[in-house]
Amino acid sequence: MATTALVDRDLDVGRRILKALAWADIKVNIAFWAHTPQIGEWQLFIATPLVDSEGHRSAYERVLRILHDAGMDAELPWRRIFLRSPKDPVLKSLEDRTSYSGPVEIMESQNALTGTPNYYVTYAPHPGGTFRILNVPVGDRFVEDAYVYGATWHVSGLDHLREFLSKLRLNRDVVEAAVEELSTEKRALIPNVQVRVRDFKQLRPA
Quick one: which of 40, 36, 78 has its CA closest to 60? Predict the structure, then answer.
């Protein structure tokens, strides 16, 4: 187990980073904080197809530009962020450990320019939106301590939100109840969502 605890602030910064990337339509297969014992530091790993399509350097430049535009320069030393290809066998093995049963949280964020409602949809199979793994083999490596995030998507417009939720095989009554809750609270929680692996993987980037 890591001797240096990962603080709640870092977990929150990671969530906001993932929301900023979702808003910019940057696909993320999996994201997690892992402790690096050699330097006694927690580092944020993000697996994105952007690395394969644009190369490491261009991917970093684009991601850092997005975070800069989101006003996050002061939130986290960028040297603690590592982008990886989703094809990395260790990350792919870790992705396969993700649970497919838990709550779906929806948060509304109005587009100031167009007035179109935008939504962050987070599938968080574990309390706090992350699950922790300790001292387990992942792929061909050993993970001492890591916090893995649930998936986050950005959806624009109410009709697209309904369509997206239908892909999770939620019935119409559940979807409409969430829409009604959003209209008054600007957020909604759908508990105990059971998602089939093949359906969930269709929502995630290849």
Answer: 78
Q: Say what percent of the chain tops pLDDT 70.
A: 76
**Beta-carbon-side half-sphere exposure of residue 184 (alpha carbons within 13 Å):** 6
| Confidence (pTM) | 0.76
Task: Indicate if the pLDDT at residue 183 is higher than 60.
Answer: yes
Is 149's pLDDT higher than 80? yes
Using an 8 Å Cβ cutoff, are 61 and 50 in contact?
Answer: no
DSSP E strand stretches across the chain: 30-36, 41-47, 81-84, 101-110, 117-123, 130-138, 141-149, 151-156, 187-194
pLDDT of residue 60 exceeding 90, the answer is yes
| Distance, CA of 185 to CA of 17 (rounded, Å) | 23
Beta bridge partners of 109: 118
User: What is the C-alpha separation between 19 and 116, in angstroms, rounded?
Assistant: 17
For strand 151-156 and strand 141-149, is the pairing parallel, antiparallel, or unpaired?
unpaired
